Amino acid sequence: MRISIAIIIVLLISGCVSGYQQFYKSEIVENNIDDLELLQPGEEPKVYGTQDFEKDSKTLFPKNYRRIGHSSFNGRFEDESKVKEQAKRVCASVVLINSKYTNTQTTTSPLFLPNTSTTYISGFGGGTTATTYGTMAVPITSHQRRFDQAAIFFAKSTEKLKLGVLLSDLTEEQRIEAERNTGAVISAVLDGSPAFNSNLLPQDIVIEIGGIVVKNGRHLQDILKSLDTSIGSVNFKIIRKSKLKDIEIKFN
Fold first, then answer.
1. Which of 19, 34, 68, 207 is surrounded by the fewest CB atoms within 10 Å?
2. DSSP-assigned letters across all residues of 50-108
3. 174: Cα separation from own chain's centroid
4. What whole-number percentage of the chain has pLDDT above 70?
Protein backbone atom coordinates (compact mmCIF):
# COMPACT_ATOMS: atom_id res chain seq x y z
CA MET A 1 0.00 0.00 0.00
CA ARG A 2 2.77 2.50 0.92
CA ILE A 3 4.49 1.84 -2.41
CA SER A 4 1.24 2.50 -4.29
CA ILE A 5 0.67 5.79 -2.47
CA ALA A 6 4.24 6.91 -3.16
CA ILE A 7 3.83 6.18 -6.88
CA ILE A 8 0.57 8.17 -7.02
CA ILE A 9 2.18 11.18 -5.32
CA VAL A 10 5.16 11.15 -7.70
CA LEU A 11 2.80 11.01 -10.70
CA LEU A 12 0.75 13.93 -9.38
CA ILE A 13 3.84 16.09 -8.81
CA SER A 14 5.48 15.25 -12.14
CA GLY A 15 2.31 16.19 -13.99
CA CYS A 16 2.39 19.81 -12.79
CA VAL A 17 3.01 22.55 -15.36
CA SER A 18 6.26 24.43 -14.84
CA GLY A 19 5.91 27.84 -13.19
CA TYR A 20 8.27 29.28 -15.82
CA GLN A 21 5.70 28.27 -18.44
CA GLN A 22 2.50 29.00 -16.48
CA PHE A 23 3.51 32.53 -15.44
CA TYR A 24 5.41 33.54 -18.58
CA LYS A 25 4.62 37.00 -19.97
CA SER A 26 5.81 37.90 -23.45
CA GLU A 27 7.41 41.29 -24.09
CA ILE A 28 7.65 40.90 -27.86
CA VAL A 29 5.96 43.62 -29.88
CA GLU A 30 4.42 42.27 -33.08
CA ASN A 31 6.11 44.76 -35.36
CA ASN A 32 9.63 44.00 -34.13
CA ILE A 33 9.61 40.20 -34.08
CA ASP A 34 11.34 40.18 -37.49
CA ASP A 35 14.27 42.00 -35.89
CA LEU A 36 14.95 39.13 -33.46
CA GLU A 37 17.43 36.31 -33.99
CA LEU A 38 15.50 33.57 -32.19
CA LEU A 39 16.83 30.24 -30.92
CA GLN A 40 16.80 27.62 -33.65
CA PRO A 41 15.72 23.95 -33.34
CA GLY A 42 18.57 21.88 -31.94
CA GLU A 43 20.27 24.84 -30.25
CA GLU A 44 20.63 24.99 -26.47
CA PRO A 45 19.83 28.18 -24.52
CA LYS A 46 22.37 29.51 -22.04
CA VAL A 47 21.17 29.98 -18.46
CA TYR A 48 22.95 32.29 -15.98
CA GLY A 49 22.20 32.88 -12.31
CA THR A 50 21.96 36.48 -11.15
CA GLN A 51 21.60 38.46 -7.94
CA ASP A 52 20.81 41.70 -9.82
CA PHE A 53 18.55 41.49 -12.88
CA GLU A 54 18.92 45.17 -13.79
CA LYS A 55 22.71 45.14 -13.66
CA ASP A 56 23.16 41.88 -15.56
CA SER A 57 20.54 42.83 -18.16
CA LYS A 58 22.65 45.89 -18.94
CA THR A 59 25.71 43.69 -19.51
CA LEU A 60 23.78 41.81 -22.21
CA PHE A 61 22.68 44.97 -24.05
CA PRO A 62 26.12 45.76 -25.56
CA LYS A 63 26.07 42.30 -27.18
CA ASN A 64 22.70 43.17 -28.77
CA TYR A 65 20.49 40.97 -26.55
CA ARG A 66 16.93 42.17 -25.94
CA ARG A 67 14.29 41.05 -23.44
CA ILE A 68 11.52 38.98 -25.01
CA GLY A 69 9.68 37.89 -21.85
CA HIS A 70 9.79 37.11 -18.14
CA SER A 71 8.39 34.75 -15.49
CA SER A 72 8.03 35.10 -11.72
CA PHE A 73 6.27 32.84 -9.23
CA ASN A 74 6.45 31.26 -5.78
CA GLY A 75 6.44 27.47 -5.54
CA ARG A 76 8.50 24.32 -5.28
CA PHE A 77 12.04 24.68 -6.57
CA GLU A 78 12.38 24.11 -10.31
CA ASP A 79 15.78 23.18 -11.66
CA GLU A 80 17.57 24.53 -14.74
CA SER A 81 15.97 21.96 -17.04
CA LYS A 82 12.55 23.61 -16.54
CA VAL A 83 13.97 27.01 -17.44
CA LYS A 84 15.57 25.58 -20.57
CA GLU A 85 12.30 23.94 -21.60
CA GLN A 86 10.52 27.30 -21.44
CA ALA A 87 13.40 29.05 -23.21
CA LYS A 88 13.02 26.58 -26.08
CA ARG A 89 9.25 27.16 -26.18
CA VAL A 90 9.73 30.92 -26.64
CA CYS A 91 12.98 30.59 -28.66
CA ALA A 92 15.12 32.53 -26.15
CA SER A 93 18.88 32.07 -26.48
CA VAL A 94 19.85 33.47 -23.05
CA VAL A 95 18.05 33.41 -19.69
CA LEU A 96 18.85 35.13 -16.39
CA ILE A 97 17.42 33.36 -13.33
CA ASN A 98 17.18 33.92 -9.59
CA SER A 99 15.61 31.91 -6.75
CA LYS A 100 15.24 32.59 -3.02
CA TYR A 101 13.87 30.30 -0.31
CA THR A 102 10.74 31.70 1.38
CA ASN A 103 9.13 29.01 3.56
CA THR A 104 8.20 25.35 3.99
CA GLN A 105 4.54 24.56 3.44
CA THR A 106 2.97 21.57 5.20
CA THR A 107 -0.31 20.20 3.89
CA THR A 108 -2.44 17.20 4.83
CA SER A 109 -5.10 15.97 2.44
CA PRO A 110 -7.11 12.75 2.01
CA LEU A 111 -6.19 10.33 -0.72
CA PHE A 112 -9.12 8.07 -1.68
CA LEU A 113 -8.11 4.53 -2.56
CA PRO A 114 -10.21 1.54 -3.65
CA ASN A 115 -11.07 -0.82 -0.77
CA THR A 116 -12.73 -4.23 -0.77
CA SER A 117 -13.86 -6.42 2.11
CA THR A 118 -15.15 -10.01 2.17
CA THR A 119 -17.72 -11.24 4.70
CA TYR A 120 -18.65 -14.88 5.37
CA ILE A 121 -22.36 -15.45 5.85
CA SER A 122 -23.25 -18.76 7.51
CA GLY A 123 -26.48 -20.53 6.78
CA PHE A 124 -28.32 -23.87 6.77
CA GLY A 125 -26.21 -26.42 4.93
CA GLY A 126 -23.19 -24.14 4.59
CA GLY A 127 -22.42 -20.50 3.95
CA THR A 128 -21.59 -17.91 1.33
CA THR A 129 -19.21 -14.98 1.04
CA ALA A 130 -20.15 -11.41 0.17
CA THR A 131 -17.70 -8.87 -1.23
CA THR A 132 -18.21 -5.19 -0.55
CA TYR A 133 -16.55 -2.55 -2.77
CA GLY A 134 -15.82 0.96 -1.59
CA THR A 135 -13.09 3.49 -0.92
CA MET A 136 -11.01 4.45 2.04
CA ALA A 137 -9.43 7.80 2.84
CA VAL A 138 -5.73 7.77 3.64
CA PRO A 139 -4.32 11.02 5.10
CA ILE A 140 -1.27 12.20 3.17
CA THR A 141 1.04 14.81 4.73
CA SER A 142 3.58 16.55 2.52
CA HIS A 143 6.27 19.15 3.21
CA GLN A 144 7.19 21.46 0.36
CA ARG A 145 10.06 23.96 0.42
CA ARG A 146 8.93 27.03 -1.51
CA PHE A 147 10.98 29.60 -3.38
CA ASP A 148 10.47 32.94 -5.07
CA GLN A 149 11.68 32.22 -8.61
CA ALA A 150 12.14 34.58 -11.52
CA ALA A 151 13.61 34.55 -15.01
CA ILE A 152 14.14 37.02 -17.84
CA PHE A 153 14.38 35.61 -21.37
CA PHE A 154 16.52 37.21 -24.09
CA ALA A 155 17.07 36.90 -27.83
CA LYS A 156 19.61 38.62 -30.05
CA SER A 157 18.41 41.63 -32.00
CA THR A 158 19.30 42.44 -35.60
CA GLU A 159 17.69 45.88 -35.43
CA LYS A 160 19.99 48.76 -36.28
CA LEU A 161 19.54 51.42 -33.59
CA LYS A 162 20.02 55.08 -34.42
CA LEU A 163 22.24 55.75 -31.45
CA GLY A 164 22.72 52.39 -29.73
CA VAL A 165 22.24 53.20 -26.05
CA LEU A 166 20.10 52.08 -23.14
CA LEU A 167 18.65 55.07 -21.30
CA SER A 168 17.29 55.80 -17.83
CA ASP A 169 16.21 58.80 -15.78
CA LEU A 170 18.51 60.44 -13.28
CA THR A 171 18.41 59.00 -9.78
CA GLU A 172 18.13 61.35 -6.81
CA GLU A 173 21.83 60.83 -6.10
CA GLN A 174 22.76 61.70 -9.70
CA ARG A 175 20.58 64.83 -9.64
CA ILE A 176 22.31 66.05 -6.49
CA GLU A 177 25.79 65.29 -7.85
CA ALA A 178 25.09 66.94 -11.23
CA GLU A 179 23.17 69.78 -9.56
CA ARG A 180 20.27 69.47 -12.02
CA ASN A 181 16.92 67.71 -12.40
CA THR A 182 16.88 67.31 -16.18
CA GLY A 183 18.86 64.97 -18.39
CA ALA A 184 19.08 61.27 -19.23
CA VAL A 185 21.62 58.70 -18.11
CA ILE A 186 23.27 56.30 -20.54
CA SER A 187 23.01 52.91 -18.82
CA ALA A 188 24.69 50.81 -21.53
CA VAL A 189 26.24 51.28 -24.98
CA LEU A 190 25.82 48.84 -27.87
CA ASP A 191 29.09 47.56 -29.33
CA GLY A 192 29.79 49.01 -32.78
CA SER A 193 26.95 51.55 -32.61
CA PRO A 194 27.28 55.29 -33.42
CA ALA A 195 27.36 55.98 -29.66
CA PHE A 196 30.12 53.38 -29.17
CA ASN A 197 32.23 54.68 -32.07
CA SER A 198 31.79 58.28 -30.87
CA ASN A 199 32.96 57.30 -27.35
CA LEU A 200 29.81 57.82 -25.33
CA LEU A 201 30.16 55.85 -22.10
CA PRO A 202 27.86 54.28 -19.51
CA GLN A 203 26.95 56.77 -16.75
CA ASP A 204 27.32 59.78 -19.09
CA ILE A 205 24.46 62.22 -18.47
CA VAL A 206 23.03 63.67 -21.69
CA ILE A 207 21.72 67.17 -21.07
CA GLU A 208 21.35 68.48 -24.61
CA ILE A 209 21.20 67.08 -28.16
CA GLY A 210 21.33 69.23 -31.27
CA GLY A 211 20.46 72.31 -29.20
CA ILE A 212 17.43 70.67 -27.57
CA VAL A 213 17.49 70.44 -23.77
CA VAL A 214 16.85 66.83 -22.65
CA LYS A 215 14.20 66.49 -19.93
CA ASN A 216 14.47 62.76 -19.15
CA GLY A 217 15.06 59.35 -20.70
CA ARG A 218 11.71 59.19 -22.51
CA HIS A 219 12.20 62.69 -23.91
CA LEU A 220 15.62 61.73 -25.30
CA GLN A 221 14.10 58.62 -26.91
CA ASP A 222 11.46 60.80 -28.59
CA ILE A 223 14.16 63.18 -29.85
CA LEU A 224 16.14 60.28 -31.31
CA LYS A 225 13.06 58.85 -33.05
CA SER A 226 12.48 62.11 -34.90
CA LEU A 227 16.18 62.68 -35.62
CA ASP A 228 17.19 62.60 -39.28
CA THR A 229 20.46 60.68 -39.37
CA SER A 230 21.10 61.74 -42.97
CA ILE A 231 22.54 64.96 -41.53
CA GLY A 232 25.62 62.88 -40.76
CA SER A 233 26.25 63.94 -37.18
CA VAL A 234 24.76 65.70 -34.17
CA ASN A 235 26.28 67.36 -31.11
CA PHE A 236 25.67 65.97 -27.64
CA LYS A 237 26.28 67.93 -24.46
CA ILE A 238 27.02 65.53 -21.62
CA ILE A 239 28.21 65.53 -18.03
CA ARG A 240 30.94 62.97 -17.34
CA LYS A 241 32.43 62.75 -13.85
CA SER A 242 31.01 66.21 -13.02
CA LYS A 243 32.61 67.80 -16.09
CA LEU A 244 30.73 69.26 -19.06
CA LYS A 245 31.76 67.83 -22.43
CA ASP A 246 30.72 68.18 -26.08
CA ILE A 247 30.70 65.00 -28.14
CA GLU A 248 29.93 64.81 -31.84
CA ILE A 249 27.93 61.68 -32.68
CA LYS A 250 28.62 60.50 -36.24
CA PHE A 251 25.98 58.30 -37.87
CA ASN A 252 27.96 57.25 -40.94
1. 34
2. -S-HHHHHHHHGGGTEEEEEEEEEEEE---HHHHHHHHHHHT-SEEEEEEEEEEEEEEE
3. 28
4. 89
